Amino acid sequence: MTTTANTNTNRHSTYTTASTGTDSKNGDKKPQDLWSSMLDSVASAKRLPEKNILILGGTVDSQREFFESLSSSELRRTHALDRQGSRVPPVANSFALGYTYYDVLDADQEDTLARISLYTLTSPSPAFASLLKPLLTPQSIPNTLIVVLLDWSQPWKWMRQLREWILLLRTVLISLSDECKVTMEEVMLSWRDRGRGGGTNLDGTSAAPVSDADVSLPLGPGEWEDALGLPLCLVCQNAEKMEYLEKTQGWKEEEFDVVLQFMRTVLLKHGASLIYTTPSTPSQLPSLIHSSLGIHSLLKKHPLKHNVIDRDKIVVPPNWDSWGKIRVLREGFDVERVSSGWTIDLDQPFPAPHASSASSKPETEPMTDEDDDEEGDSVAEDADPEGSTVTLYESCVQDPTMDALQIAGRTSHSTKLEVETTETQNFLAQQLKILEAHRQKNEEATREESRLKPSLVKKTATDEDDHQYGIYSARPSDVLEHIGPVQFNMGGIQVDADDMVQRLKDRQTYGSSPEPTDEDGEGIAEETPQMDTENLQAFFTGLMNRRGGTGK
Where do Acidic residues bias regions lie (predicted)? Predict the structure, then answer.
C-alpha cells in the first residue's frame, strides 16, 4: 500500500512536458504559445468578408425601398431577434452621405456569408466628391459595387441623370492614388473575362474546366469601351408605373422598347448590368447584387438568368448583352449613333461651365423673362453638345407634361420646372400697361359719344313737342281762338262760366301726356307751358256780365 501511494504522488502532466523544450547546454526551458496561435486561427476563420455598395441617386424613400428589396424577410427577422438581442441596423440617409449595413446569411439562415456596408448619396453635386474618395482604397476596391437608382415615374430624365453620376464618379476615380488605379485595372480585367470561355461564369462562380479554358471570346463592338474601374449596376425602380404611363400618357410598346435599347447600349460601354424592380415583388436583385460582389451560397445556388421579354422584369447580367441582341428588340434603332454620342456626352467637363457662372451671378440683380429664356437656351446648348445621346434620348422619350408648352410655341427643356413665375414688379408693370390701354380706349369712346349726343337730343325734343301739342293738348292761343264766338245755349242746357273754366283746368291736368324719356332716364323734351287760367276766368266773367247786362 505504501509503495502504491508513493507512485501516485510522483505522477505529473505529460502535456506540459511535451509542450516545453529543454536546452541541452544550459537546461533553460522555452515555452511555446499554442493558445495564442489557436485563438488567432479561430478568429481569422470567423472574420466576415466585408463588402461595400455605393448607392447613387434616388430619394431617401427609394433608397430605403432598395435596401428592403435587397434584404429578404428572413434576414430582417434574424436581425430583429438574433442571439444577442440586437435590432435591425438603422438607415441614416437623410443628409449628404448616408450609411447602413446588413449581413448576408446562407440558405439555412445560420451561417453569415458576408457583411455589406451601404453608402448612399442622393445628389450628384461636385461638393460630395470628397466624401466618396476615402471609401475607395486598394483594399476596398475589389469588394466595391456601384449602384445607380432610377425611377419609372420620370423615365425621360434617365439619360441625363446617368450622365451626371458617371461624370461625378470619373472625377473621384481620376483623383485616386496610383496604387488604387492599378487595383481598378486588375478588377476590370477580371470582370471582362466573366462568361467568355474562361474560368468564371457570368455570376462570378467558377466554370467547369474544359480543354480550351485558356481561350476567351473577343469583345464585340461597343463592349467595355469605357470601363469605369468599378463594377456598375443600374436599378430602375417602381416598374409598376409602366402601366400608368400606358393608360394615362398613351405610351405603347415602342416607347418602352426604345427606353430599354438606349439604356442597354449605354451600359454596354461600361460592362454594367441592368434590372427593373417592383416593390413587394420578388426579383433577381439579391442574386445580381451578391454575385457582383462575389458572395455565393454554400448550400443552395441561385443561378442568374437574363430576361428581356417581360417588360417589367428586365434583367441584363454583365457581359451578356451585345449590339446584335439590342437590334433584335426593335428594328430601326441606330446603335452606333447612340454609342458614339454617349462618348461625346462623357467628354464634357464636370461641373458644366454654365452651372458655375449661374451660381456666381449676384442674387440682387433682377432678371427679366427675356434674360431667363436666353439663359435657358445657353444652358441647353452648353449642356448638350452636338451629337449628344442625351439630346437624342430626350427627343425620343419626351416629358408628357411639357407637350402643352411645346404646342404653345415655347422652347423649354424637359428638366426645367413645369411652372415658371415672373418677378412681382415685372408682372405689375405689364398689367399697368394693359390697364392704361383700356383706359385710353374708354376715354376715346366717351368723347365720341358726347360729341354726337347734343344734335340727337335737339332733334328728338322738337319732334316730341310737335307730337304732344298736335295730339294730347292745345296751345293757349288755339284755345282762345276756338272759344271766341261761344254759344252757351246748347240744347237748352245753361252752362256756367265757372264750370267751363274748371273743365278747361281738368282737361289741362288729365289730358296732357307724360314727357317722353330716353333709356338713361334723361328728359329729351321741354316742359309743356302752363295755361293762364286767371285770364281765362276773367274773360268768361266779363262775357257773362256782358250777357247779363244785355238781358236786363
Answer: 366-385, 516-525
pLDDT of residue 510: 53
Stretch (H or E) spanning 102: strand 98-105
Return mean pLDDT, the chain: 75
Q: How far apart are the first and last CA of the chain?
A: 206
Read off the pTM: 0.62
Cβ pair 410, 393 in contact under 8 A: no
SS3 111: coil
**Measured distance CA(52)–CA(116) in Å, rounded:** 6
Retrieve residue 58's grid coordinates. Answer: 434616388
Angle at 333 between CA 329 and CA 336, to 5 degrees: 115
Q: Say what the pLDDT of residue 203 is.
A: 61
Out of 70-79, 155-164, 536-545, the most confident range is 155-164
The grid coordinates of residue 270 equal: 461600361
At residue 32, the pLDDT reads 57
Question: Are 273 and 233 in contact, with CB atoms under 8 Å apart?
Answer: yes
Q: Which cell goes with 409?
A: 410655341
Is 445 in a helix, a strand, or coil? helix
Cβ-proximal residues to 159 (8 Å cutoff; 6+ apart), any chain: 262, 266, 389, 390, 393, 394
Residue with cell 464618379: 169
**Are the C-beta atoms of 242 and 152 separated by less than 8 Å?**
yes
What are 9-66's pLDDT values in tens digits? 444 444 344 444 444 444 454 455 777 777 766 665 567 889 999 999 999 999 999 9
Q: Which amino acid would we find at residue 439?
A: R
Q: Closest by alpha carbon to 234, among 266, 258, 281?
A: 266
Encode pLDDT of 77-103 as tens digits: 455 445 444 567 788 888 889 999 988
Number of Cβ atoms within 10 Å of the Cβ of 80? 11
